[in-house]
Design goal:
Strand 2, helix 3 and strand 3 form a beta-alpha-beta unit. Helices cover 49% and strands 11% of the residues. By secondary structure, it is α/β, with parallel strands linked by helices. The chain contains nine helices and six strands, in the order H-E-H-E-H-E-H-E-H-E-H-E-H-H-H. It has a six-stranded mixed β-sheet, with helices on both faces.
Length: 246
């Protein structure tokens, strides 16, 4: 998957990307009224879901070699091993993961704070979280600020933005997912103006650039297909991590 280019969209393009993806993944053009809240439903019990978390020995090894710490959700649980292999082959870097299915950003940032306190940190932090914040989007922005405060100005934070439109849900819910995902991506883009060491992997825009990519690279409107979507997303991430390596 060499040669994938990451776009740098403006505010309008981020919103358009959400709208294009929503139109491509829903049936019909009639918007239904959202029943309550933000329209995507409830988060649910993420603590009981699957996870992939590096051992203390691995965390220390990655820290000592100035590799990469990763904090993610179910996409990371699925794709983390493949990402580690791709990153190692490309740059020689080691990856320590803290991925937990269904987890929103706040507890992921709590995990980052715990690693920072107990182990210290390398110069690059990968945040692949935000998908599960569609249920309460306003919670997301302050967590980006927390990450940047924990990382400080001398480390680079690479953040993968989100694409969510669960095909198993109703048309109204899929539209709410896309609206809330675009909201999350916009908050992330706005904060990039404040934090020059925040770098965004534009996964949502990459998918929206060609509507056919949504069905090619996603298996359910959220998670990557394997291997095509997994390779595409991981390649974008590796390119960003390689560019941030100094």
């Amino acid at each position: 998957m060499k040669g994938i280019r990451s776009a740098r969209p403006n505010r309008r393009q981020i919103l358009v990307a959400g709208a294009v993806a929503a139109a491509a993944t829903t049936v019909g053009g009639t918007q239904q009224a959202f029943a309550s809240g933000y329209g995507s439903g409830d988060l649910g019990d993420w603590q009981s879901q699957g996870k992939a978390i590096a051992s203390d020995a691995t965390i220390r090894s990655v820290r000592d070699s100035d590799g990469v710490f990763m904090f993610g959700d179910s996409i990371g649980v699925q794709d983390g091993y493949s990402l580690a292999v791709r990153l190692g082959d490309r740059t020689g870097d080691l990856l320590a993961v803290n991925n937990w299915s269904g987890r929103p950003t706040e507890p992921a940032v709590d995990a980052l704070q715990s690693w920072a306190t107990n182990f210290g940190m390398p110069r690059r932090i990968l945040m692949a979280t935000g998908t599960n914040d569609i249920f309460t989007p306003p919670d997301f922005g302050p967590q980006v600020d927390r990450v940047m405060q924990i990382a400080g100005p001398t480390r680079t934070v690479i953040w993968v933005n989100v694409q969510v439109s669960r095909w198993s849900q109703t048309t109204a819910t899929q539209l709410a997912d896309q609206r809330n995902g675009a909201w999350i991506n916009l908050m992330l883009a706005d904060r990039q103006k404040t934090y020059p060491n925040l770098k965004i992997v534009h996964w949502a825009e990459f998918l929206a650039a060609m509507p056919s990519r949504l069905t090619m690279y996603l298996r359910d409107g959220v998670h990557t297909s394997v291997p095509d979507g997994q390779n595409a997303r991981n390649e974008l991430i590796v390119q960003a991590l390689a560019a941030a390596k100094v």
